[in-house]
Design a protein that fits this description.
The protein is an alpha/beta fold. The protein has one domain: 4-Layer Sandwich (Nitrilase/N-carbamoyl-D-aminoacid amidohydrolase). It is built from 5 helices and 14 strands. The strands form 3 sheets. Strands 1, 2, 3, 4, 5, 6 and 14 form a 7-stranded mixed β-sheet that branches. A hairpin with a 2-residue loop joins strand 4 and strand 5. Helix 1 packs parallel to helix 2. The longest helix is centred in the first third of the chain and has 15 residues.
Length: about 250
């Protein structure tokens, strides 16, 4: 039987603007520190470059250096790695969230809601397919930043997933929306939500406060950015309060 508990570590990475190699080095150190006590290691959206007008110019091939690095790191530490970076396929670029298993296999989700206010929608092609994947007996729905504002896209019909996993570059100026939406998505979907956001200042002077959080199915943030989720408690809550049976 698969492990009923799942431990997640969120890396509030202060991204070096436009320097993929430096960012991989920084994340490698944090991953090594967390590896002994986690199952899934998560980094923010566009962790190799930062989020801005330079993303498409710094895109990588689908099988580029960051994917190879993630495969090596996941295998070395025996944990799953989750993060997004910009991938180029032909003349299109995608803000692609990857999950990389310890055995080197992987899959991806392309961000469906590109942020038009910042110009992301002008350089990044929208994804069109929702994904749910399984790891250690948990069903996980990946999402990227702006996706969090769209409850219909994330609707947990039939309780198809147990954990909503979000990688983000969410600015400090809208931090209240970030923390509120993480709780809202957990409550309405009867699931755990883990949201990993960046810290620091980007190349355009934008400030990021992190506020990464792991939220339980009642909407309560767990104590730290490393937490162990309980499948038994989640199942018990869903059986006691089957609100999903009355979804519109």
């Amino acid at each position: 039987m698969e492990n009923e508990g799942l431990t997640i570590s969120l890396c509030q990475h202060d991204i070096v603007w436009g320097d993929a190699e430096a960012n991989r080095r920084r994340v490698a150190l944090s991953m090594a520190d967390a590896a002994a006590n986690t199952d899934i290691f998560v980094v923010p959206e566009t962790f190799t470059t930062g989020f801005g007008e330079h993303m498409a110019a710094l895109s990588e091939p689908a099988d580029g250096p960051t994917l190879r690095w993630a495969q090596e790191a996941a295998a070395r530490h025996g944990i799953m790695f989750v993060g997004t970076w910009i991938v180029r396929e032909g003349n299109r670029c995608y803000n692609r969230l990857h999950w990389v298993f310890p055995d080197g296999s992987f899959d991806h989700y392309d961000k469906a809601h590109t942020f038009r206010v910042s110009g992301e929608a002008d350089q990044i092609t929208r994804g069109a397919e929702r994904k749910v994947f399984e790891y250690k007996g948990w069903r996980i729905h990946p999402a990227v930043c702006y996706d969090l504002r769209f409850p219909k896209w994330l609707r947990n019909e039939g309780m198809e997933y147990d954990l909503l996993l979000v990688c983000a570059n969410w600015p400090a100026s809208r931090r209240e929306a970030w923390t509120t939406l993480l709780k809202a998505r957990a409550i309405e979907n009867l699931c755990y939500v883990a949201g990993c956001n960046r810290t620091g200042t980007d190349g355009n002077g934008g400030l990021y406060s992190g506020d990464s959080a792991i939220v339980d199915y009642k909407g309560f943030p767990m104590e730290t950015t490393t937490a162990t989720l309980s499948m038994e408690k989640l199942r018990t809550f869903r059986q006691r309060w089957p609100f999903y049976l009355d979804f519109d």
